Amino acid sequence: MTTTTAVPDASPVTDGLEALPVVLALGRPDAARVAAWVEGVLGWQPVDAGAGGLHPRLRIADVADARAADGPPPHGDVPTVLLVAADDAALAVALAVQRLSPAAVLSWPDERERLVPAAAELLGRTRQVATDEQTIRVGGASGGVGTTTVALALGALASWRHGATLVVSSGTVPAGTSRTVDLDALAGQRTFEEASPVPGIPGLRVARSTAPPADVPVDAGAAAVVVRDVGVADDTDVLVLRRDGAGVAALERSPAAVAVVLDDGCAPTGAIAAAAGGRPAIVVPRSARVARAGLLQRVPAALPGSYLRSLRPLVAPERGRGR
Length: 323
Fold this sequence. Notes:
With 323 residues, this protein is α/β, with parallel strands linked by helices. It has 2 domains: 21-124, Response regulator (Rossmann fold); 129-313, Rossmann fold. The protein is 28% helix and 24% strand. It contains 11 helices and 16 strands. It has helices at 31-41, 63-68, 90-100, 115-122, 147-162, 183-186, 191-194, 245-253, 269-276, 288-295, 305-311; strands spanning 3-8, 21-25, 45-46, 58-62, 80-84, 104-107, 126-131, 135-140, 165-169, 180-181, 196-197, 204-209, 225-232, 238-242, 258-262, 281-284. Strands 8, 9, 10, 11, 12, 13, 14, 15 and 16 form a 9-stranded mixed sheet that branches. Strands 3-2-4-5-6 form a 5-stranded parallel sheet, with helices on both faces. Strands 1-7 form a two-stranded antiparallel ribbon. The longest helix has 16 residues, at 147-162. The relative contact order is 0.15.
């Protein structure tokens, strides 16, 4: 049965997020940094809510602004995103939420990459990617960027949220003993039951394919979600890249809906944002802990929480499992 996975619309022509007019209602000390990110990196257009002219479509506020505000915010039809800092008092945050009724609350700067997908969702600009099953294809801009690690991390997130999940890869899988499965022979059979359980992640199984996972149909059997590690590929749903020239070029070519950017390399953030063209670009850390987890065959069970948290928006919200 065909299902769909919701992802932010990747097209800047149709998603309306290029030069998005936004109100920056900020009273925090680092307001200038927030404005620089919104205007310089995302390419959005700050506007004055009370001066007429271009009507805003989004309002970005913070706890300090909520304390100073007298009465409801102007343009009440515009959704508000509330930015919360780590040192904001819990009571102040609660009062800000009560006063502003934000449509989304994000931690700044930890969750700043979520501004684009949050805005896309609030403005109703999402697309549905139809698949043979609920599938996420993960490809890399070049070899060694960590597509398998990202695929396993997404598999873990999907299994915790949706239940039984299958990760298919043709390469080495750093998650315990992974059985090699002949997908051609298993076509029409229960691939999930033939795959190997991943230690520490209930519901997640891995199959090493004897053929490129992107080319072979998978009958997932009991699996609700299939994550395909397709190796080096541009035509994919999630593109993993380094912050370098090759990564920027691959992102410009790729129709991927989302980019996962390894935070190493010398390409400026603006170049990544320009190549993404309005698509979410989620930055994940290059850490010794991730490398050690791979060497010990303990991905994804030993990945740091910050790594998994940054990838969480790529997994669709939980829906009914009537299968």
